[in-house]
Amino acid sequence: MRWIPCPTGKLCIEDDMPGKVVNGSQMTLRIEEPSTPQYWYVIMAACYLDSYCLWKSSVKEITVRYDLWLTNGSPLMRYLNPFGHQFSFEEQNSAEIYMLLFILYIVVGFCQWRSVILCNSASVFPRHQLLNCIIVLKAFGLALHCINVITFSFDGQGVFFARFLGEIARLMSTCLLCLLLILLSCGWSFGNSSEILLHAK
């Protein structure tokens, strides 16, 4: 528990050990739960303790300006877990997952490019063009998500524009994949000859 507002430019009254306060902060709350992850909440209540140690509602109008920084682990030892320091428990390893998926899609894109080259065709079939577009969009979206989560790992804010464009690319690739599956169910194939069955004979 901390009493606010804190003195301007100084530590809060309860933080009487400056060595345990993060540089540039007025207060530091350390919670150690090594065995079971839990959710923690920050609550600001406009109340105070009177002379009888009873809670009373505050009648003063005080404007509080605050900047909270929540980390998973000690801020002084962020080098031990650089890609999980800013993420909550359920979002741990997000950066590693996005980077792994991006590498996998690069490999898939290379395999698809090799398959198109080995077809020995003068032109690329529309179904291959559609699949190429799906892979490129997915890889592009994952690259933007990687930029966002890696940046978030270091500054706790990320890149909103990269996340926004990455999500759009992901949705577009999903829609095109659904379209490709529908066309394949109608008679498309990845061979040299395919017909789309539009109506029953």
From TrEMBL:
It comes from Wuchereria bancrofti. InterPro entries: GPR180/TMEM145, GPR180/TMEM145_TM. The keyword Transmembrane helix applies. This is Antigen. Residues 101-189 form the GPR180/TMEM145 transmembrane domain. The chain crosses the membrane at residues 97-117, 129-150, 171-191. GO terms for biological process: G protein-coupled receptor signaling pathway; response to pheromone. PANTHER family: INTIMAL THICKNESS RECEPTOR-RELATED, INTIMAL THICKNESS RELATED RECEPTOR IRP DOMAIN-CONTAINING PROTEIN. It holds the Pfam family GPR180-TMEM145_TM. Coiled coil: none annotated. Keywords: Membrane, Transmembrane, Transmembrane helix. It comes from the Eukaryota.
